[in-house]
Design a protein that fits this description.
41% of the residues lie in helices and 15% in strands. The protein is an alpha/beta fold.
Length: 235
């Protein structure tokens, strides 16, 4: 497939923030590869964006599958010869309000598999392709719950998985200095999605803007930072 602009991968793109990030990126002449664990829901999201005449395609992806990142990378290289942007958006939220010592160990492991190891695997596999092309933007969709001052009681599995994601952001950014690959984390805030619920204070459109900004920053832009609405916040 020949595309005129950059190529982006957005995980968990079948709904909510991921779908809106995909829309906003595609409106900037970026070809977006939407990924979705559920193929049917992914196809519905794809059709929604195709109806807007946007340049998008679909790849079925479960970020917790150990082979998924390799298969996606092969698809991207074969189809486009490149990947310029990676938005690690896919996440789960399993332990709202629960005390850490009361949850099953499986809950902690599942949270890390989806929220940390999924992102790590995609970074490990796709960043080498970015290096070959001399350009890359990685955005890890984190949470204010991943900040150190949020490490208080309850919801520990989710908080710790996002804390680890923030650490990944800083380490990779440091290791990639001088490569024109920028790695940043973004807190979208409390968003009206299936995860955030109907009482949340922000729309997916509002939340996506800061993520898209980080995904499209120029060569002089920051790396290794944590943002909310394009403003640096504390780790």
């Amino acid at each position: 497939m020949v595309v005129s602009g950059q190529v982006a991968v957005v995980t968990g793109a079948n709904r909510g923030i991921g779908l809106e990030v995909s829309r906003q990126l595609a409106e900037r002449n970026v070809h977006v590869v939407l990924t979705s664990r559920d193929k049917t829901k992914g196809q519905q999201a794809l059709n929604h964006l195709l109806d807007r005449s946007l340049s998008v395609s679909l790849f079925q992806l479960d970020v917790t599958n150990s082979d998924a990142a390799t298969r996606l990378c092969g698809h991207l290289v074969k189809t486009f010869g490149r990947v310029d942007i990676l938005v690690n958006n896919a996440a789960i939220y399993l332990d709202e309000g629960d005390k850490l010592l009361d949850i099953p160990l499986e809950t902690l492991r599942n949270s890390f598999d989806a929220n940390f190891f999924g992102a790590y695997s995609l970074c490990k596999t796709l960043i080498p392709v970015m290096k070959k092309n001399g350009y890359g933007r990685v955005v890890n969709v984190s949470s204010g719950y991943g900040a150190m001052d949020a490490m208080n009681a309850r919801t520990g599995a989710y908080k710790l998985s996002k804390l680890a994601l923030n650490g990944l952001t800083q380490i990779l950014a440091s290791e990639l200095k001088g490569t024109n690959i920028k790695v940043n984390a973004v807190d979208p805030g409390w968003v009206r999605t299936e995860m955030g619920g109907p009482s949340a204070t922000r729309s997916p459109q509002e939340a996506a803007r800061g993520i898209v900004w980080a995904a499209t920053i120029d060569d002089s832009g920051p790396t290794g930072k944590f943002f909310r609405d394009t403003k640096i916040i504390s780790w």
